[in-house]
Design brief:
By secondary structure, the protein is mainly alpha-helical. It has two domains: about 1-90, RNA polymerase sigma factor, region 2, helix turn helix motif (Rna Polymerase Sigma Factor, Chain: A, Orthogonal Bundle), CATH 1.10.1740; about 110-195, Winged helix-like DNA-binding domain superfamily/Winged helix DNA-binding domain (Arc Repressor Mutant, subunit A). The chain has helices at about 5-15, 15-40, 40-60, 70-90, 110-130, 130-140, 150-155, 160-180, 185-190.
């Protein structure tokens, strides 16, 4: 955490709304992105991000300054999204890359673009079948590079439970990927047994 963030957090804990606004502006993109990946739609993600920051604002006095703020904040977002998915009973997930997360290739190969799109569609279908908590763990690991310990803190799981979930989820992903991967005459495609997550 940078010095301005520590100062904003301390001020926010003492009721400084401007300091909390600085935190919102700093972290709104990662919070929105996590909500978007978990819920699948921009309006739902926007609502979930707003709810996340409202909940963080209400709990900021209890926030432990020794803990990673982004881990704490994303755990609030993940729990809210998991609750929303359970209420809906409609598991959704999107792996679409948001524009700010990838630089466009100046001259993309059309075959690669089509291939990548097909792979993302398949990965999307597979991840749709996972439980909300497994999905959240996968997102935190592969899109946010969270450690087992950070995922455990975010999802209220022991480290061994995180490892077990991740092992099972990766196994399911690999098995389902093999069973639905379209056969291609392209030797490069045949060499890829699973997607780069």
């Amino acid at each position: 955490m940078s010095n301005p963030e520590v100062e904003w957090l301390q001020r926010a804990q003492h009721g400084d709304e401007e300091a909390f606004t600085n935190l919102v502006e700093t972290y709104q993109t990662p919070v929105y992105n996590l909500c978007y990946r978990m819920l699948g739609g921009p309006q739902e993600a926007e609502d979930a991000a707003q709810e996340t920051f409202w909940r963080a604002y209400q709990a900021i006095r209890r926030y432990d300054l020794q803990r990673s703020f982004i881990t704490w904040l994303l755990s609030i977002a993940a729990h809210y999204c998991i609750d929303q998915q359970r209420r809906r009973r409609l598991p959704t997930f999107t792996i679409d890359l948001l524009p700010e997360e990838s630089a466009p290739d100046p001259a993309p190969d059309p075959e690669f673009v089509v291939s990548r799109s097909e792979e993302e569609k398949i990965l999307h279908q597979i991840l749709n079948t996972m439980s909300p908590q497994d999905r959240a763990a996968m997102i935190m690991r592969y899109w946010y590079n969270f450690s087992d310990e950070e995922i455990g803190k975010a999802l209220n799981l022991s480290i061994s439970a995180v490892k077990s979930r991740m092992h099972r989820a990766r196994h399911v992903l690999a098995e389902r990927w093999k069973s639905v991967q379209p056969q291609s005459s392209n030797p490069e495609r045949r060499n890829h047994e699973s997607p780069a997550v």
